[in-house]
Specification:
By secondary structure, this protein is α+β, with helices and mostly antiparallel strands. The protein has 20 helices and 21 strands. The two termini are 28 Å apart.
Amino acid sequence: MLYPMKLIQLLLASLFVVSFNSCGENTENAENNEETADGNQETVAEDMSVLDEHTLSNYFDVKTTHLHLDIAVSFEEKKIKGSVTHTLENVNGVNEVIFDTKALNILGVTTDGGNPANYEMGEYDELLGTPLKVEITPETKTVEIEYETTEGTEALDWLMPAQTAGKQQPFMYTQGQSIFTRSWIPVQGTPAIRITYSARVQVPTSLMAVMSASNPVQKNETGIYSFDMPQPIPCYLLALAVGDLEFAPIDYRTGVYTEPSMLEDCAYELADMGKMVSAAEKLYGKYLWDRYDVIVLPPSFPFGGMENPRLTFATPTIIAGDRSLVALIAHELAHSWSGNLVTNSTWNDFWLNEGFTVYFERRIMESLYGKDYTDMLALLGYQDLMRTMSEEEPAMQSLKLNLINKHPDDAMSDVAYEKGYFFLRLLEQVAGRDNFDAFLKAYFDEHKFQTITTEEFVEYLNTNLIQPHNLTVNVDEWVYGEGVPENCPKVVSTRFNAVEASIEQFYQSGSVESIQASDWTTHEWLHFIRHLKDNTTPSQMAMLDEKFHLTQSGNSEIAAIWFEKSINFGYDSIDKELEAFLIKVGRRKFLMPLYTALAATPEGKEKALAIYAKARSNYHYVSFNSIDQLLGYQP
């Protein structure tokens, strides 16, 4: 059942159906509107496919084009306080603008430079938050909102000094995707519109602030930092981090921020960033965001990376010491085209961000490290996809989703990433690489700084690739169907074939000496551990551990899958290291499988709850919210 406010907005929007491009133009489909008025349910559903049901704002009537933040970050109170000024475009000449908020204290609202405005907080929605309704006129140009965050703010992670690498200074960062930006800034919380932004941020003088914008490269004496993002972005890409940060350049347009004690290791690990940008440009056109920098955050960061423009937020779990996990950086860089440059209009279209990005990421990796390397990545991705398909409900197995009354984070599965990738790989296979590259390059160029729906992409695909080249492709089955179609491209890896041979030799001989792993990459180790047989005994796990020291692995990817298999096979010698890993690492990709494996038995769940009681405070909301539900934990 829809909440009343949202139901009203969807009904109103289905009558207007306004599609915005980056210049603020709008179009109305009169024929479809007439059919909708006559009660044609099929047309209503089609029209509503361009709506974002995850916002309470009236962005289809009046929208933000630019926002300016003037805020102070207080670590003592664990609050952000200040104001946000929205520059408006009143598309339909309405007398009210509605912003999304969640767990914010609204302290006052003015318009056009100081005129007090009438405003009210609407009905609270558990998923979407509370709409802030502000009275305006068709001539109103700006709305300034004074506000502060609260303990319930989901986007902010406040870290004590002990939770950082340096152990001396606190740290704070934001995580806006998918709908969390509204919990630290009153915004129109939809990817359907794009905004430019500027900011003035005051922080303690011992710390530095950086944003998804133009950034400083060293601390200043005032603790006041100014930022500008002239390229229009969806609001989920607004991002801020504050900590004891230093900067190291990689080349003339790339570099890394992190805590001082980690800077040398991070700069070494990310040494190929400049080459990645150049490789990406050769594939699909000029990088349009000026600089590409990375900030390596403390371990509580819940994702591998977040593609905040100009400044990717990254997990420290990619710092393996051997540059073996830098595919994640290629992925976040690829988002500079797919996701940041061309953005999904709604979270139902999330695959348009991630499927394209995985495809682009692997093309970058292939250009730098070769096809054998990329085939291993693709096969691991296929394994992830098959596992997800075995666990995911049928309604969540299609690329185009219906997430009404669901959190957009539910879409963040391997369906969007890997099924999307294999669909694009199929198109490359059918059309030929040269034709597909020309198509993708034109797609990015023609849709830059715009948003797009699945239906619009399918139309563009038919018009610009399938029809001109007379191709036969089961597009609807891939996009709207459940599961993985039978014509999914097959990937073969000779290196993985050798790994599988070693697995068989191990089980046949009963000896680890048959495993020739001295030159294995991270990916070969992942394939090996994933394919250990279900009847593997604790003694066999002990043999592998004694030989290869997997429990002590400093590589988080290897450690996580090894711990999961160890739990499943009853190998308890990992317990000490497992607990340390779960307390330190906040990346949800690792946490959920491990807590799930522990929770499969009564004894394991008891162990999981004991560890979680110690670890929960180290996790971001995105992670602990998922684990609370998994374990039935009541904080």
